[in-house]
Amino acid sequence: MFFRYLLLFFLGFSFLHAYTLAEEYETKTQNVYASDIIKDIDRDFLLFSYDDPTQHMLRVNAKDVAKIFKEHGYIIQNKDVRYVNFRQKSPIDMSGISESLRKEFLLKYPDLQIKSLKVYPRSYITELPKIYSLSLQSRTLFKSYSTFSIVTPEHKMIFFDYILDANINVLVTTKKINRHEPLSQSNTKIKNIKFATFRGNPVIDIRHHKYQSKFALKSDYILTINDIEALSLVRRDDTVVGSITDGGVTISFTAIAEQDGKEGDIIAIRKSNGKKLTAKVVGMKRVEIQ
Question: What is the pTM of this model?
Answer without folding.
Answer: 0.68
